[in-house]
């Protein structure tokens, strides 16, 4: 049978005819080998081999400069645009549902504040820009995680509202993979107060929540003697750790918050003195339980500010502060400040309560502390090294600082966490003191009004 090629001629004859018309030379005659359906371009192949020898990043760089990439740009743009549209749709859908729920909760609150569920109550407070307590913040974050999953499941159903009970949240959270602590905080009971059954359950699952129950937090002890011996070498040994973490910037923030009469608790060797602003302060008292530490602070302060007269240096424990103050005349402060001290106290909650009792009306406690971080992997590391840290620095670096503030009954007016959440920058006040104008939210400042707390009762 004769195969037909182009324009109905037999195959060979057809190809030859086209070549003749277009004046294309035979490939075999150019290369000197037989006709091949896949001719090898040796130059191209060599170039390809050279490229393959380059490091990966150079190969990608060459690809991005190539014609091939430029030609496929349109398709990449279309794909990118498509992906953005999908993400935007999901985001807007979420905002829409959230807005619907906000309207619903506001109506409920207006009619009967008691009818609000725990989630609705937290949500309304968050929306009113109230600062949630650290445990409430933690729980609200878990509610939000559950809400995202809920919305995914009810993609098109606008009518259902997300409103789980704390028990439903607990059950959902306990099933989440990759979480070491699977218990959400319980807000309605005082912190630390648990039924025998719950305690037993915790021992079984090893899900410890509070500082007191976490077996990885080493027991508190009086660290005065340790720091008495450490004082001389302290600055030299800690300086590289602090430089590596750029702590100078954080200390500067701390010292900018000082106002009026100031008490610095656990002053150590006076590492905050280089960032001291004498123009902000009327008087300052340095306190530490270690005499050697206080002596070093005194030396540093005198050489840096020889003309600053209203300064005092006291040896004493933060846990005995109120007692120390009442021995003399009634002493109160505008600002009580502490840096990296709570981790070294025997009873940090008592120390905080004492600091609060020494505040003048409207006074603030300013803290720069280190403790548990935002991520499980960080906390696991802190827990793992906690004993060693206690031995080398007499410091319990895996305490939950937020929980200490809660237990001391203080309100937080400013909170920032850095270094994966392990460095806590906090400004606290007594609950009965009003917010200062600069601490109010933008809207409240704009309308010159005081925030009205959201209450269920
Ligand atoms: C880690 S050092 C921090 C020192 C300093 N604030 C700084 O930022 O470098 C802890 C300090 O707390 C002091 N300290 C420990 N327990 C204390 C207590 N119960 N009352 C007062 N100071 C205490 C120690 O003597 C030590 O100087």
TrEMBL record:
| Transmembrane listed as a keyword | yes
Q: Is Mitochondrion given among the entry's keywords?
A: yes
Which InterPro entries does the record associate with it? Methyltransf_25, Methyltransf_Superfamily, SAM-dependent_MTases_sf
Q: How does it sit in the membrane?
A: Single-pass membrane protein
* Biological-process GO terms, alphabetical: methylation
Q: Which GO terms describe its molecular function?
A: methyltransferase activity
Q: GO CC terms for this protein? A: mitochondrial inner membrane
Subcellular location per UniProt equals: Mitochondrion inner membrane
TM ranges are: 74-92
Q: What is this protein called?
A: S-adenosyl-L-methionine-dependent methyltransferase
- Report the residue ranges that make up the Methyltransferase domain in this protein: 262-363
Q: Which family does it belong to?
A: Belongs to the methyltransferase superfamily. METL family.
Keywords noted in UniProt? Membrane, Methyltransferase, Mitochondrion, Mitochondrion inner membrane, Transferase, Transmembrane, Transmembrane helix
- What domain of life does the native source organism fall in? Eukaryota
